[in-house]
Design a protein that fits this description.
The protein is mainly alpha-helical and 53 residues long. It is built from 4 helices and no strands. The mean pLDDT is 95.
């Protein structure tokens, strides 16, 4: 999966998504939820609060 494909799903710019990935910019909760749905996992897993996807 490319950053562009994920950014397209989140309806944001690839550069913005890249900043989320690198931790330069905090991801909004609404984007976090979309990302969890996209990867069929939990927000806790994405945030590193759980080892159980």
């Amino acid at each position: 999966m490319t950053q562009q494909q994920v950014a397209d799903h989140l309806l944001c710019n690839r550069q913005v998504y890249a900043r989320y990935e690198r931790g330069i910019r905090e991801i909004p909760v609404s984007m976090l939820i979309k990302l969890a749905e996209f990867y069929d996992t939990t927000t806790d897993y994405i945030l590193g609060l759980s080892d159980n996807p």
